[in-house]
Each structure stands twice: as structure tokens, then as C-alpha cells.
Amino acid sequence: MLLVRRARVPVALLPASMVTDAIDPLEPALLCDITIAGTAITAVSPASTSAPHPDHATGVLNVEGALVVPGFVDAHVHLDKTHTWHRAPNRSATFMDALESLGRDRDNWTEDDLLRRARFALRCAWAHGTRAIRTHLDTGPLSEVSHATMATLRNEWLGRITLQTVPLGGGAAYATSDGDRIADLALRHGASALGGFFTMSPELPLQLDRLLAIARDRGIGIDLHVDENGEANAEVLRHVAEAVLRSEFPHSVICGHCCSLATQPVERARSTIALVKAARIGIISLPLCNLYLQDRRGTGTAFPRSPLWRGLTLIRDFLDAGVPVACASDNVRDAFYAFGDYNLAEVYTQSVRLAHLDGAGLSDSINVVTRTAADLIGLPDFGRIIPGARAHLSVFSAHRFSELLSRPDAARRCIDGETIHQPTLPDFSELQDRSN
Fold first, then answer.
1. Per residue in 337-392, pLDDT tens?
2. Given its phi and psi angles, is residue 328 left (phi above 0), alpha (psi -120 to 50 degrees) or beta?
3. Distance CA 218, CA 184 (A)
4. Treating both helix axes as pointing N-terminal to C-terminal, what angle do 236-247 and 266-278 enclose, rounded to 10 degrees?
5. By percentage, how much of the chain surpasses pLDDT 90?
6. What pLDDT does 51 receive?
7. What's the pLDDT score for residue 48?
8. Quick check: 156 pLDDT over 90?
9. Residue of 27, 111, 228, 346 marked catalytic
10. Which residues does 122 contact at the CB level (< 8 Å), separation at least 6?
11. What is the structure's pLDDT at 297?
12. Do domains 2-70+385-421 and 72-376 have the same CATH topology?
């Protein structure tokens, strides 16, 4: 057993019975003692003021009021594309050039190449305290290799990082015979949902109905890319909600990005959010990638060249309506986003700043990379500090939210089961092509 004493835990992650009305909304955390046995948390209680009785079978770690959060959950990434920037940069930093640049790089995506880049990414995530990841994988000629490679990594990281996969391709394919093939290939390799990216067209309702039928037949949910642009007439999210309600789809539905919602008339956006709530759709926002790509003004002389819109969906408005929202890393060091390190503390910090998640106090803000993210991808024993949850914890040097949000790159200790350790980040030199 391991007893973690005087851990300052965000109240949103604790058992509801421990939370009182006296919580400070600017520093919404409680001092707790956390007991771990094996791989699970067995007890959480208010911190004791007296030292525990000596017990040769129990280790004790007094963290002296440091902030402690559960293992982060990165609910939307792209491990097949990651760490390709050095080979396939996006010099215009626009969405279309990202597609073209990565398209030219796909010939390099051998099993060995995928394993090398994805392993590096997982080691980064591990060092930063992430313990569950969902990755989207491009469909097409490389589908078999990509899914098989991720299945290898899923087994390789078993017990450390829970790795989920979702196929990603054009949504129109689901309205053809390719739809069943995409689904069956992905599920054969252990996919957790069916996915794709959809665009506005007269055939969109048919495409969505067909996807939902395929998913229903296989008893699985869907996780989609929608409206990743600033066009006010892009309303795939609304069509997804209508399709889910029309078909009474019984499984999980997630929509990622949803950027264009923020450019639409107020009443239209409000009614779409109401449909999303009625359809029980979860939203995943990708603030760093969308901040990078959206509203690029090019290299011309037109005024203004500075971005006027920063790419985020209506995160606060979804939350106000009771729609679950998570935030995730998305692309890391590839043509869609040149930066990143699978550091969800950074994603959380930037999400708070960009989406004003501190606007009503910080109490529930940490959920976007922990509890809510875990619930959306079907991992109810992750992302919280309650009896029965997985014993994955990060101990920060910060003692207050304001400190954590000011230094998201600060060193942290990790607790996995009864093991206390401080993982180190891999060096970027490991990613150099062997021919260099």
C-alpha cells in the first residue's frame, strides 16, 4: 500500500461527498490523503493533521500541499502523422497545404517509421503524466499497417498508457461499400469507435445515416472531425445532431473541432447547441492546433493580416448548456501544427486562457483534460481521484492553480500504482532520420 498525504486535489476530481459550499472558486482544491493498493485508489479522505501510525507494509509520501491530479486523458491525437515536421513542413501554415504536405510524406510511413515516431510520442506523453490516449488513423492504402502498428503499441504500453484507435477518412466513403470495409478493418485491430471527416453536401444526411447504421450494427460509437474551418455555412455539427436524433442512435457520439460554430449568427449557434445537447453529443476542442491554423491571412498586403478569430469553438457556451467538453493535443509537430509535446498541462493552461475557463471560477476547468475527457472516450475509472479509480497521479511542484497555470512545463513526479517516479522526456535527437 501507498499513502499519499496532504495532496491538494481539485474538487472536481474528488467524490462529491467531500465537496462543500465553502470552496474558494479561485483555488478550488482540498487537502486530502489518498490510499493506493496495487493499481487502484482505495480511499480518499480529508488530510489528517497527525502523522500516520508506522506500518511496515505501507509507504508514505507527504507531498506537503502540492497539487495532485489524476493521469491526464488525451482524447484526440494523430500518432500516425506526429513528428513529421522535419520531413513535411507546412510553409503557409494553412489547412490545405497541411493536407498536401502530409500527403507527399505518406510514402515514408512504413511500420518501422510509424513505430519510431509513435513510440517517441508515447514516451513524451508518459513523462508529462498522460495515461490514456485516443488516436485517429488515416484510412486508405496504409490503413492495415497503421492499425496493426497501433495494436502493437497498445500491447506494448499495456498498464502504462491505455491506447485507443479510431479510423479517419472522408465521410462519403461510408455511403459506399468501403464503409463496411473501413469499419471491419479498424475493429479487427481493436478500434474504440468509428470516425471520419464530413463536409457540407446534399448527400451529407445520407452519409451520416449510413455511418450510424454501420456503427449500430457493430455496437460501437462514433468520433468525428467536423467544421474545422471558419465558414459560417459549415453546419456538419448540426447535421450530426439531427441524424443522431432521427435514428435514435444508442451509442457514444463525439464531434471534434466544431470551429465554424463560433462564426455563425447567435441564434443559429444557440439552436445548434440545443440540438447537440438533445443528441447527447460530446465535444472535443483542439485549441492549440485550431489557434495555429484558423484565420491565416497569408503573405499578401491586404489589411488586416493579423488573425481576427482564433479558431476555437464556443466552449463556454457548450459548458453552460450542459454539453460535455474536453480539450486535447490533436496534431503534434506535423504539418497541421508545428509545435507541441503531448503535454496536457500545456493544453489545459492554454485552454483556460484562450476559452476563459476561469470566467466562473476554475472549479470544473481541469475536467477538460481529466474526468470529462475520460468519460467521453469510455474510461470511467480514469481522470478522477476517487475510490476504485486507476492509481495514476501527477504531483506538481505547484501548490495553487495560479502557479500551475503559470508554469505548465514545471517538473512533476508521477505515481503509478504504488511506484513513485519522475520520468524523463526523450531527446529530439532520437527522431533524426537514420540516413542523416
1. 999 999 999 999 999 999 999 987 899 999 999 999 999 999 999 999 999 999 99
2. beta
3. 9
4. 30
5. 86
6. 59
7. 83
8. yes
9. 228
10. 79, 133, 153, 157, 161, 163
11. 81
12. no
Residue with cell 491505455: 162
- Rounded Cα distance between 198 and 292, Å, is 21
Instruction: Please state, in angstroms and as integers, the Cα–Cα distance from residue 324 to each residue in 169, 310, 316, 319, following that order.
Output: 25, 21, 10, 6
Tell me the pLDDT of the chain averaged across its residues: 94
Domain edges within the chain: 2-70+385-421, 72-376
pLDDT digits (tens, 9 = 90+) for 281-340: 999 999 999 999 998 887 677 888 888 888 999 999 999 999 999 999 999 999 999 999
- 304-311's contacts with Cβ under 8 Å and 24+ in sequence apart are 309/230, 309/262, 309/263, 310/354, 311/230, 311/259, 311/287
Band of pLDDT at residue 20, cut at 50, 70 and 90:
confident
How confident is residue 435, by pLDDT bands cut at 50, 70 and 90? very low
The residue whose grid cell reads 493533521 is 49
**Can you tell me the distance from the alpha carbon of 22 to that of 11, in angstroms, rounded to the nearest whole number?**
11
Query: Which of 156, 188, 175, 154 shows the shortest CA–CA distance to 167?
Result: 188
CATH number of 72-376: 3.20.20.140
102/209 Cα distance (integer angstroms): 30
Strand order in 419-421's β-sheet?
68-70, 392-396, 412-416, 419-421
Q: Up-side HSE of residue 427: CA atoms within 13 Å toward CB? A: 3
What is the assigned CATH class of domain 2-70+385-421?
A: mainly beta
Catalytic (active site) residue 430: no
Across-strand partners of 177?
A: none
Q: What is the pTM of this model?
A: 0.96
Q: Which stretches within 157-294 are classed as H helix?
A: 178-188, 204-218, 236-247, 266-278, 287-293
| HEC sequence for 160-191 | CCEEEEEEECEHHHHHCCHHHHHHHHHHHCCC
Query: What's at 118, amino acid-wise?
Result: A
Torsion of CA 351, 348, 357, 375, to 10 degrees: 110
The residue type found at 273 is I
Residue type, 328: A
Specify whether the CB–CB gap between 328 and 290 falls below 8 A: no
Task: Compute the average pLDDT of residues 108-125.
Answer: 96
